[in-house]
C-alpha cells in the first residue's frame, strides 16, 4: 500500500453539534474504567474536537484480551496500517483510535446503520443514542463510510486496536510522519474545507469552520 499523499476530494461535512452530541452523551455513566489515564482521557472528550492530535492522554479505552501475544509493528507496518486515516482531521482520528478498541461495537454500529440508515435523522440520532455503545462509536455513526470501512476490514481494525494499546507513541509518530511527507509533497495543505497548521513534528488538521467536521477522501 502506498503512503497517504494524494487527496482527491472531501466528503459531505458533518455538524459539529451532532458530532459532539455522541461524544458527550453518558460520559458519566457508571462504567468501570481500567486505569486513571483512561479516565482522564474520557473527561477530555469535551474539548477533543479542537485539540491537536497528541499521544498524551489518548490511550486505548480497554485492553486487548490478556492471552493475546503482541508483536511490535515496525515503521513500514504502521505506515500501511494508518495510511487511510492519517490525513483526517485530528478530532476524527482521535475518535477512530478510541473506537478501534471496541471492534465488536464497530460491527454492531455498522450493521445498525445498514438496517436503519433510511430513517429520518432525528429518529436515527435518538436510536443511536439509546445503544449501549462507547461515545466514540456513536460519534463515528455520523461518518458511515468510515464505520463501514472498519467493519469490512476487521483484521485491520483489530490490528489498529492492538497497535494503539501497545504502541501509542509510535502510532502518533507514524501519523505525523505521513502528514510531514504529504505536506512536503504539497498534497496536504489548507483548503476551503480544512486548515493545516504546520510546526516541525506536529501538523494539526482542523476544519476551517469549527462548527463543521468533514472527512477528506484521498488515495492512501
Structure description:
This protein has 220 residues and is mainly alpha-helical. It has one domain. The chain has 10 helices and 6 strands; from the N terminus they run ββααααααααααββββ. The protein has a two-stranded antiparallel ribbon with strand order 1-6. A two-stranded antiparallel ribbon has the order 2-5. A two-stranded antiparallel sheet has the order 3-4. A hairpin with a 2-residue loop joins strand 3 (194-199) and strand 4 (202-207). Helix 3 crosses helix 10, helix 5 (103-116) packs across helix 8 and helix 9 (154-166) crosses helix 10. The longest helix has 17 residues, at 168-184. The protein starts with 5 loop residues before the first strand and ends with a strand. Residues 1-9, 14-52 and 55-60 have low confidence and may be disordered.
- Describe the strand arrangement of the main beta sheet, using strand numbers: 1-6
Q: Give the overall form.
A: globular
The helix/strand series, from N terminus to C terminus, equals: EEHHHHHHHHHHEEEE
Number of helices, where a helix is a run of at least 4 consecutive DSSP H or I residues = 10
Largest sheet: 2 strands, antiparallel
Span between termini: 7 Å
The class by helix and strand makeup works out as mainly alpha
Number of domains: 1
Beta-strand residue fraction: 5-15%
Count every beta strand, where a strand is a DSSP E run of 2 or more residues: 6
Helix content estimate: 40-55%
Average pLDDT, all residues: 76
